[in-house]
């Protein structure tokens, strides 16, 4: 059975690094970087946090791509900020087309000081600044269940292999529909 891994969390928690390494760990996999899908819109672009329509379009495209990859026998790893309500809609959409797929939802987490430190270490064009902390607050307000959280405060490249093993094996990350 194929799986879809939604690797989420605020900026600076290690979503991209973890997601890429996770996708590379499978023999048959696809990596979907939500920001790339988002930036496909050129004329009339609005950031997803400013436009519900933009965000909805990104998730529809991510769902369609995921379905295509699952039907081709690939595990899918999605690297994008995903709140519970988006995961629920995504799950409904995908499950209606490929009912046997397992969806894993992992919200990487780190303390605020660590997020700001990591953000400051990024190249200038990729720094998020206060947006890191805004995302933390948004995750807290949206009430992400503890079972989906994975603390990366003390994670570095040397122990990322352990993080991937935990993500693959921990059934707590199995997404359970709200319905």
TrEMBL record:
Gene3D superfamilies: P-loop containing nucleotide triphosphate hydrolases. The lineage of its organism: Bacteria, Bacillati, Bacillota, Bacilli, Bacillales. It comes from the Bacteria. This is AAA family ATPase. InterPro entries: P-loop_NTPase (IPR027417). Pfam families: AAA_18 (PF13238). It comes from Jeotgalibacillus terrae.
């Amino acid at each position: 059975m194929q799986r879809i891994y939604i690797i989420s969390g605020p900026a600076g928690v290690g979503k991209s690094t973890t997601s890429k390494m996770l996708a590379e760990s499978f023999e048959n996999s696809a990596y979907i970087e939500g920001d790339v899908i988002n930036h496909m819109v050129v004329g009339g672009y609005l950031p997803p946090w400013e436009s519900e329509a933009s965000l909805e379009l990104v998730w529809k495209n991510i769902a369609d791509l995921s379905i295509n990859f699952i039907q081709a026998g690939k595990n899918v790893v999605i690297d994008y900020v995903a709140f519970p309500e988006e995961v629920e809609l995504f799950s409904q959409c995908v499950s209606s087309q490929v009912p046997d797929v397992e969806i894993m939802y992992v919200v990487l987490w780190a303390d605020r000081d660590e997020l700001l430190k990591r953000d400051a270490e990024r190249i200038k064009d990729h720094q998020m600044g206060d947006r890191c902390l805004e995302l933390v607050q948004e995750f807290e307000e949206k009430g992400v269940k503890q079972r989906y959280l994975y603390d990366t405060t003390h994670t570095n490249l040397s122990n990322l292999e352990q993080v991937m093993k935990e993500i693959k094996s921990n059934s707590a990350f199995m997404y359970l529909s709200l319905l």
